[in-house]
Amino acid sequence: MLLNQQTTTVLEQPLAYPKGAAAQVSSTIVELQPGQATGWHKHNVPLYAYILEGTLTVEYDAGVTKEYPAGTAFMEATKVFHNGINKGSSVVRVLCVFMGAEGLNNTVKRP
Q1: Which of 51, 52, 78, 101 could form an S-S bond across to 18 if both were Cys, CB 3.0 to 4.6 Å?
Q2: What is the distance of C-alpha 61 from the center of its chain?
Q3: Could you tell me which residues come within 8 angstroms of residue 85 by beta carbon, excluding any fewer than 6 positions away?
Q4: What does the alpha-carbon distance between residue 44 and residue 108 come to, in Å, rounded to a whole number?
């Protein structure tokens, strides 16, 4: 299921683009093997995610856990630490598209 005119993140935060620098869009495919986790991190920019394979479980600092099966598209939470986990028995692959700004880190690891 693709997104159509999404205005909020998965935690119902309004989408807000970074200001003060030139816009910069980048993408990557994150791959998690069974039992692997991303580690706690947050995004300071809007992130569109599409689950290509498997089911991704994400735990949020806000006390919420969500599962995203293959074919799911969503706008990830911003400025909230979270940890993505592959609890399944097959690989998880996620297309991540960051809508950031020049000089701004898209992903920040928890200290």
Answers
A1: 101
A2: 14
A3: 32, 36, 37, 38, 56, 57, 58, 59
A4: 8
In the CATH scheme, what is the homologous superfamily, with its name and number, of domain 23-109? Answer: Jelly Rolls (2.60.120.10)
Decide: 54 and 70 in contact? Cβ < 8 Å: yes
Q: What is the average per-residue pLDDT within 51-74?
A: 97
Q: What is the SS3 assignment for the chain?
A: CCCCCCCECCCCCECCCCCCCCEEEEEEEEEECCCCECCCEEECCCEEEEEEECEEEEEECCCCEEEEECCCEEECCCCCCEEEECCCCCCEEEEEEEEEECCCCCEEECC
Distance CA 46, CA 31 (A): 20
Residue labelled with tokens 């898209």:
106
- Is 87 within 8 Å of 19 (Cβ atoms)? no
What is the domain partition of the chain in residue ranges?
23-109
Cα–Cα dist 42/107, whole Å: 6
User: Given a cut of 80, is residue 1 above it in pLDDT?
Assistant: no
